[in-house]
Write a structure and sequence with these properties.
Two copies of one chain form a homodimer. Chain A is of the alpha/beta class. Helix content of chain A is 39%, strand content 20%. The first copy, chain A, has 17 helices and 18 strands.
């Protein structure tokens, strides 16, 4: 029988403490829905009393129907030396109107006497009374024992007493927190076992990654008897971040048969990670286990050869299981076979030792040397192969363009572009304005080409990324521009490299349009086949 | 007594397998020197027979004097069914001319029969004979047992036999590799102990991060008796990467008193990470333990309060120990105290409840909402405080600028800029060309201002970063531009945000120049005090 592990996500609370993260209320609601859809058990989201944003969030969250997750509000034990009913922060938690309340308190004697400056006994009262306050109101009360491992190592007897106070107060789950993130796995496992043996309630684990061991520590806590795991979905949080739940869920459910989220949702692990990264406006770490773009990216020739024979030779799980994909990377170490497989998609009968294949290899090496990367830009890669094979005819010729940027700007837009192109002997000129030079150029190019190719009207840019390749020469540095486009049905990505951001963007824009027109042409031809 | 752990870095070999990494020979030599300077025991760098770049590298590396590290060449056991003396790849290893040779071979019966397609006995011969070949030539031979943990779990008896063959061949160290990166810490530790008990030679560990547990697995292997740890310095490698040595060294040496690198070099852990990231042309993961910018960045008000009272309240080690720094982040959750501390650097006597302080707080919130981040741009932050306090007078006024970008370009540069500014009632106009619009604008602005402020001649841009903030609106997305400048003595960073990359760059450029002129003015005034 599968053992159930309750997954508790704190992206909206501990995650918001990460450097570079700043959620709007809209962002928080979107993340709430994404996590509920994935099927985590709890979603923690701060204290409505701490700031107006959280207040608005809980107010709007009430109107959302959650299908799987319970929403939890988070707050501290009461302050020292006052009655719990008089503590404004404690009372404000009730306005969140959640069935689940998470209260954190101190386990480490040093923190009690030196940081919050009270007595060891008063701290026990603070824990017991705060939890009772919510327990009597029939709330589910989860207790976060802050700094539990450091506390246990400094004074085990006292740390255990704080948990005792929490159980007396009505805690249904004791969450052991490695708040400073420095606990080693050997000591962590021993301590979890001791707590598990001493108390009759559920035990949880909350790890931080300051020693790079948050995932392993969480997994080992589960092996030692914890059945509730806290973390943030893609791992961001205060300092080095929290335990990465996307990794922990995959580890426990795929490899040790625990039940963390509904089985049919496992394949959404990857897309959920991308969605949360996008809402949070951060770049996903592409080397993250399971869900990163590189997680199943093979580059070494021998690895690619092995995976081609049997995927498990160099993959510990199947990428399909979590909705990710396998990639064979193209590079000087990847070997001819990978590139050949790509070439065959364009020219199925090309021999791997032919002069054309050699010419393509040579061209790729040159472009890579210039700073091109095709790993995320398959459409540009396909066009390069076509150009080398002569299976390509430009859809238009640029006669010239001119972009003007001005400050102060004379109207709504600061940039304008004039462009003249020729298609089949006919010239056409047009102009457009935009926010910045690339925007103006993009609009002008589409506008002038739509007179020849009306199907371009449905294309739009969905992503535009700039990477500075060599920061040492500052504003004259080489940049790589990646452009993602869509016609509403499919999505394709193209790349351009130059020391001039406009030229790099131009190269990628042209490829994007040519690629789309080529696809349209193929569709039309198919009718006659 | 401290127990010695031999640190074996494979950035130049396994690290080169990472997505997005492509080293030149120069890059490799720079990394070699950085790692030697840090004092790792071994640096592994590929096979001179595998490609001309590696051949050139070993040739040039011979001429380098290494002060601490041993350079190692890496290759496979001989191919099946030929004599070891006839295997070109094996022989080519000798041309590296290194005292240490690393040979990898198969431990997993499935790989032997299904991937390299030979018999279990022939694989044992391949291991034994290849190692003997180098051992007889008085090389130090390290044996990498590929897929050892998967092999042990599938067929423990055979996996142990492969190690036996390596010992017979003269291996001085048996390195157990979790090649697919999927091994759990509990089973890993048991298996390391079994190997340690069975063989009289040194045992090493080589982990990959596909389950997010490479660091913990390496640490647990050491606790189980391994004394040789392989990884890459900042963790990049095939797929999810290798065990991160910067984390492992800090964990073992700071927290368990192992001896990994010379004690006086610990404080270079952070700078070495930055150096290797820069040479590799990748962005360091700023959330990386110990060496990341966020590793000691405190944002939550309570955490900042705690750290101010006693650093160990929310820090598991001191940032100084590894040459990193503590940061208090400014944000809506960071509390007034952090911002106040910054304000006091400009206006030491300002009261924390004054209307000016409120006005600054308000302005910061507005700017953060627009997409500004001051975490890495302290100079812009200081100018904002000055502006709010009226302690600021612009050094020049922009009358207007115009930038023109053209394709095809008429000369060396594709962009040109005309700019007119006014200083103390005197107008001046100038123009410059550049690679792209920002480069042209930067040059024109410096040129026209140098007529008024000759000290600007010594300023130059050292970094220029573009971050697209909201990729959803594509080429009209909001961008944040960070500019780093230097006058040869100090370095300062400024930031600008706009939907127009030129405007964002302009804002940051102006701040950069104003900040420098302000510093110069202060220096001059000091003479009269």
């Amino acid at each position: 029988m599968q053992r159930k592990i309750r997954i508790f996500d704190s992206t909206l609370r501990d995650g918001a403490q990460a450097e570079g993260i700043s959620f709007s209320v809209e962002d928080k609601l979107k993340i709430l829905k994404a996590l509920d859809q994935l099927g985590v058990d709890y979603i923690e989201a701060g204290n409505p009393g701490s700031n107006p944003k959280d207040l608005e969030f809980f107010d709007r969250a009430k109107r959302e129907t959650l299908h799987h997750s319970k929403l939890a509000a988070f707050g501290s034990t009461r302050r020292r030396d006052i009655r719990v009913e008089e503590d404004a922060n404690v009372k404000s938690l009730l306005t969140a109107d959640t069935q689940t309340i998470v209260i954190f308190g101190k386990s480490w004697d040093f923190h009690v006497t030196e940081i919050i400056k009270t007595t060891l006994d008063e701290n026990l009262n603070m824990i017991r009374e705060t939890l009772s306050f919510f327990h009597e109101k029939r709330k589910e009360v989860i207790y976060d024992a802050e700094h539990f491992f450091d506390g246990y190592k400094a004074n085990a007897e006292y740390a255990m007493k704080t948990l005792g106070a929490a159980v007396e107060g009505g805690a249904s789950c004791l969450v052991l927190c490695d708040t400073n993130g420095g606990t080693f796995p050997d000591e962590l496992q021993t301590i979890v076992e001791a707590v598990k043996a001493a108390f009759p309630v559920e035990v949880g684990i909350h790890c931080h990654n300051d020693a790079g061991m948050a995932v392993a520590n969480s997994v080992l806590a589960v092996l030692a008897g914890a059945t509730h795991v806290q973390g943030t979905y893609i791992g961001f949080g205060e300092r080095c971040g929290n335990a990465n739940l996307s990794t922990i869920i995959a580890n426990l459910q795929l490899k040790r048969d625990y039940d963390c989220i509904p089985a049919e949702k496992l394949k959404d692990l990857t897309v959920t990670a991308r969605r949360i990264a996008e809402i949070s406006n951060i770049a996903l770490n592409e080397r993250d286990p399971y869900i990163g773009h590189s997680a199943f990216a093979h580059k070494g020739g021998m690895h690619i050869d092995g995976v081609t024979k049997a995927t498990r030779s160099f993959e510990h799980v199947s990428p399909e299981a979590i909705g990710n994909e396998r990639h064979f990377l193209m590079s000087e170490v990847s070997g001819r076979n990978t590139i050949l497989e790509k070439i065959r998609q364009v020219a199925p009968r090309l021999d791997k030792n032919s002069p054309e294949t050699d010419a393509i290899m040579q061209r790729l090496k040159e472009l890579e040397h210039m700073g091109y990367q095709f790993e995320g830009a398959e459409s540009t890669f396909e066009l390069i192969i076509r150009k080398q094979l002569g299976k390509y005819k430009p859809f238009f010729e640029l006669e010239h363009f001119k972009i003007i940027g001005e400050q102060p700007s004379s109207g709504e837009y600061s940039s304008s572009a004039i462009i003249k192109v020729k298609v089949d002997g006919t010239s056409e000129i047009s102009a457009a304005e935009g926010d910045g030079p690339v925007h103006a150029l993009d609009r002008a190019l589409r506008k002038v080409l739509t007179t020849f190719y009306p199907e371009l009207a449905k294309v739009k840019l969905t992503d535009y990324k700039v990477r500075v390749l060599d920061t040492r020469s500052a504003s004259a540095a080489k940049v790589r521009v990646l452009i993602e486009s869509t016609d509403g049905e499919s999505v394709w990505t193209t790349v351009g490299v130059s020391t001039d951001i406009i030229e790099a963007s131009w190269i990628a824009l042209v490829d994007s349009i040519e690629y789309m027109l080529l696809r349209e042409l193929e569709k039309k031809m198919r009718v006659y086949l």
